[in-house]
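quick one, 240 residues, struct below
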Amino acid sequence: MIGWLRRDGAAPTIDVAGRELPIALRRNPRARRLTLRLAPDGSEVRLTLPRWCPEAEALAFAHARTGWLAEQLARVPERRAPGPGATLFYRGRELAIDWREDAARTPRLMEDRIVLGGPSERVARRLQLWLEREAQRLLTADLADYAECAGIPLPQLRLTRAQRRWGSCSTSGTIRINWRLVQAPDHVRRSVVAHEVAHCRHFDHSPAFHAELARLFEGNVAEADAWIKAHGRSLYASFG
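---
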């Protein structure tokens, strides 16, 4: 996301519920209208402009919608560092973090908890690395399933730490998936993978694309999309 500077060198900002947030502006030549979003972690306001739109008009558009932005900001979950005695989400389940001084450093999943040792101040980092490894394992299997179903060669998989997108598919066939989806229920994670595999067949959101997605995905696409809309920001609460 490209943030533009004013002529005086200062980035544009906006007051949202008493907080001054930077505005990141980005021109998209394919955009047909202004699009306003709040970053998942509430750190900035993101404004996408069509080619024809003046910057001043875009900023006025954002300032006229501070009430809506305040509502979105209120929904951003409070950041909570995952440490001893806390919890984390894995595949839609809330697991207790069971830190033990004499346990192995590598996290181990044990029923309703995850057990690990090592320096307590490094617990969050080790848990994130464990989740990323689990994401790689699960998403690799998901991708293989849907590629076989779609009848296409296995695309290359890349995990991302994107702050906006859950998945993407490049024209070269590389599929990128946000690793944080390992915290979501399985059907939500798999819906994103199926979505991107469908794009390998139809690089648009045409009726043919939606028909392919419905054929590939074994669950309810609308339900998975609704979960992401309602809970997606919560996936950034522990690991920003």
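Residues 159 and 177 are 5 Å apart (CA to CA).
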